């Protein structure tokens, strides 16, 4: 049997339980790896063997029924992906797929009724083992349910692609297997019941007792489980529509999505054994492929490195934050106010130039609180508390007792220096002064202050409530207590924080602006906008360049570009065409098509590049810039750049961020003479 020496084994613990009304006891298998919910159950080779043994023992006991449940808050979150990078051959990958299929099939083929009591999170192989059971209950407290494998370069490889569409129909299965993973969504318990994934939904407080009683009713015939007949006439049409959507969004760059489509098509008529055999072959192909290795690397960054940022001072140095001041009351400042309010639940005060702006900012926050109540994401008691904690004033003295002050005003260094000079005379000596600047120097901003050591960069990404990245920038004088407090606050805000050196535009904006700079070099030279826009489709980026520019805003992009052009004029162009677009104020896209009026504005040369040439030049520029950033010590390692690009710019898992793609495509070595990542770390070279 294949082995993973690092596997945290999830044991299948069997016990006999008496249930009223049944003549025979029940065999209850509890999945438990011995840790709390912070280290979820998962299935590695040893865990699958433990489940296999438990099913054998349960069957031999001849119980009234066999049921599987999980430890508190967790059912099972799928395969133990830490062992996947250890698979060195396709044969080993096939063996892993077949092992899961063989063990899970025992539940499906059992002559004794089998039940899954999904008490907590059930993802991937965890949901698949439940799907193999004859019946399923789900707890209202189950945090997340789904088959997210496509998002990490894999497919549901232990029966999910064949069981789910034949249980709930192809529209729901396509949503769970394709749409949800690619939009980073999971099912809530109520949705799982409505779709038919679960047969019954019970409250968390008495979930196990209610599930046992319900299952006893099923076994005795007192409870009838009705499932709708599957409509097979619409099967092909749903998958045709799904394929068109995938092609439009991903342009064929994500093999796992295409494989999942093929398997869903197969599930319409194929026998279960043929379908699962195809799953095994597809899983083996993907596990050994570049995209899956990059995806697993990216998943590890998000799940582990993001929670343990490198270079952070001891958390014992962090100061307590009991009040937050926000300089500015515009949209970004108001979004920040809402975030600090919800997460820290301390007084938050806004200030701006006049009362009208302040009132508008406070009204935005209270309005968003009301919306959350309406969506049942916030109870009225908490909402009332938050409304009482938000305030605004044009009198800056209200910041006197604030522990953490953050500014979110226009990107102008002189303006920000003036603001801090004024507020330094108002706030208490130990208060943290944080700036949400996207590109300006923290060191210069603090240079003329009496206490520059308490100024720190605190760069959020828009929309603030959605994007999880927080770049925390250390100026030359920023001290450890300030930095420790910044990271502690970032953690309370539930953001993934990365320590960044004070360098122009920091990480995400520097990389994206170098990318945009190369795009406009091609445009200025004479390459048509549509050619440039489609040049990066083979990479499967979340947005084409023109759509990205429209989202960021041409004026913002131009401003950041100016900052970087001044710092590095030899690498960052000051594009006259981008300036024309900014001055015109026209939308770049109209009905998702490039605006013809924008095309008329451009003054270009006569050098027309192909899409391949545009992409090659841009990738070479990114490799050069990232190597320079690492040599400058902007971040500790290449992994931090990848983490920033994933969490701050939405770069896809199948690229691993950016450096694994530059490594495996050979661009890194061609441009810089070496790879970014150590051998074996997401660096499978294309053959």
Describe the protein's architecture and organization.
With 687 residues, this protein is α/β, with parallel strands linked by helices. 47% of the residues lie in helices and 12% in strands. It has 27 helices and 19 strands. The chain has an eight-stranded mixed sheet, sandwiched between helices. Helix 15 (413-424) links the parallel strand 13 and strand 14. It is globular and about 80 Å long. The two termini are 29 Å apart. The mean pLDDT is 94. One of its GO terms (molecular function) is long-chain (3S)-3-hydroxyacyl-CoA dehydrogenase (NAD+) activity. Belongs to the 3-hydroxyacyl-CoA dehydrogenase family. It catalyses: a (3S)-3-hydroxyacyl-CoA + NAD(+) = a 3-oxoacyl-CoA + NADH + H(+). This is 3-hydroxyacyl-CoA dehydrogenase. Keywords: Fatty acid metabolism, Lipid degradation, Lipid metabolism, Lyase, Multifunctional enzyme, NAD, Oxidoreductase.
Q: Which band does the percent of strand residues land in?
A: 5-15%
Principal-axes geometry comes out as: globular
Give the mean pLDDT.
94
Largest beta-sheet details: 8 strands, mixed
Total beta-strand segments: 19
Low-confidence stretches are: none
Task: Report the total helices.
Answer: 27
- In which range does the helix fraction lie? 40-55%
Helix and strand composition category: alpha/beta
Distance between the termini: 29 Å
Widest sheet, order of strands = 12-11-10-13-14-15-16-17
User: In angstroms, what is the radius of gyration?
Assistant: 28 Å
Pfam families: 3HCDH, 3HCDH_N, ECH_1
Family: Belongs to the 3-hydroxyacyl-CoA dehydrogenase family.
Protein name: 3-hydroxyacyl-CoA dehydrogenase
Domain 3-hydroxyacyl-CoA dehydrogenase C-terminal: 506-585
């Amino acid at each position: 049997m294949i082995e993973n020496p690092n596997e945290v084994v999830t044991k299948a613990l069997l016990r006999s339980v008496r249930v009223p009304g049944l003549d025979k006891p029940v065999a209850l298998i509890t999945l438990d790896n011995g840790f709390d919910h912070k280290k979820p159950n998962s299935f590695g080779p040893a865990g699958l063997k433990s489940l296999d043994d438990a099913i054998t023992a349960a069957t031999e006991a001849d119980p009234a029924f066999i049921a599987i449940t999980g430890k508190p808050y967790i059912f099972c979150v799928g395969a133990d992906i830490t062992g996947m990078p250890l698979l060195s051959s396709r044969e080993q990958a096939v063996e892993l797929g077949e092992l899961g299929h063989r063990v899970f099939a025992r539940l499906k083929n059992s002559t004794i009724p089998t039940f899954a009591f999904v008490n907590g999170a059930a993802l991937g192989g965890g949901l698949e083992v439940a799907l193999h059971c004859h019946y399923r209950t789900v707890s209202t407290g189950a945090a997340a349910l789904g088959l997210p494998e496509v998002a990490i370069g894999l497919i549901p490889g232990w029966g999910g692609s064949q069981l789910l569409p034949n249980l709930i129909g192809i529209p729901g299965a396509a949503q769970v297997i394709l749409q949800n993973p690619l939009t980073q969504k999971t099912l809530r318990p109520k949705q799982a019941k409505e779709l038919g994934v679960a047969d019954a939904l019970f409250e968390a407080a008495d979930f196990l007792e209610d599930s046992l009683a319900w299952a006893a009713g099923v076994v005795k015939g007192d409870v009838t489980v009705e499932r709708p007949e599957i409509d097979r006439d619409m099967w092909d049409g749903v998958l045709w529509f799904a394929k068109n959507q995938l092609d439009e969004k991903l342009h064929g760059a994500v093999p796992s999505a295409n494989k999942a489509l093929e398997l869903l098509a197969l599930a319409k008529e194929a026998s279960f054994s043929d379908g699962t055999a195809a799953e095994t072959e597809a899983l083996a192909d993907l596990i050994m492929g570049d995209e899956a290795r990059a995806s697993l690397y990216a998943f590890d960054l998000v799940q582990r490195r993001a929670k343990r940022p490198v270079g952070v001072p001891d958390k014992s140095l962090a100061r307590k934050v009991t009040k937050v001041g926000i300089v500015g009351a515009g949209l970004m400042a108001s979004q920040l106010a809402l975030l600090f309010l919800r997460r820290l639940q301390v007084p938050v005060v806004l200030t701006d130039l006049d009362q009208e702006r302040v009132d508008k900012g406070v009204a935005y926050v209270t309005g968003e609180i009301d919306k959350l109540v309406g969506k049942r994401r916030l109870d009225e008691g908490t909402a009332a508390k938050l409304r009482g904690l938000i305030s605004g004033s044009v009198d800056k003295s209200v910041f006197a007792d604030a522990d953490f002050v953050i500014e979110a005003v226009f990107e102008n260094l002189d303006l920000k220096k003036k603001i801090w000079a004024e507020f330094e005379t108002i706030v208490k000596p130990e208060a943290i002064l944080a700036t949400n600047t996207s590109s300006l120097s923290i060191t210069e901003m603090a240079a003329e202050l009496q206490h520059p050591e308490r100024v720190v960069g605190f760069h959020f990404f828009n929309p603030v409530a959605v994007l999880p990245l927080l770049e925390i920038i250390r100026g030359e004088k920023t001290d450890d207590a300030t930095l420790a407090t910044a990271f502690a606050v970032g953690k309370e805000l539930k953001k993934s924080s990365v320590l960044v050196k004070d360098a122009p535009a920091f990480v995400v904006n520097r990389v994206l602006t170098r990318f945009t700079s190369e795009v406009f070099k091609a445009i200025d030279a004479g390459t048509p906008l549509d050619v440039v826009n489609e040049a990066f489709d083979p990479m499967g980026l979340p947005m084409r360049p023109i759509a990205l520019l429209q989202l960021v805003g041409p004026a913002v992009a131009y401003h950041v570009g100016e900052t970087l052009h001044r710092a590095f004029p030899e690498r960052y162009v000051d594009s006259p065409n981008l300036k024309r677009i900014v001055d015109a104020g026209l939308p770049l896209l109209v009905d998702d098509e490039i605006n013809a009026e924008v095309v008329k504005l451009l003054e270009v040369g006569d050098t027309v590049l192909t899409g391949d040439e545009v992409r090659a030049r841009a990738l070479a520029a990114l490799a050069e810039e990232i190597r320079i950033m690492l040599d400058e010590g902007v971040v500790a390692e290449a992994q931090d750049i990848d983490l920033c690009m994933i969490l701050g710019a939405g770069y896809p898992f199948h690229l691993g961020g950016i450096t694994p793609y530059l490594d495996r495509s050979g661009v890194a070595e061609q441009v810089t003479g070496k790879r970014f990542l150590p051998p074996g770390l997401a660096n499978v070279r294309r053959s």
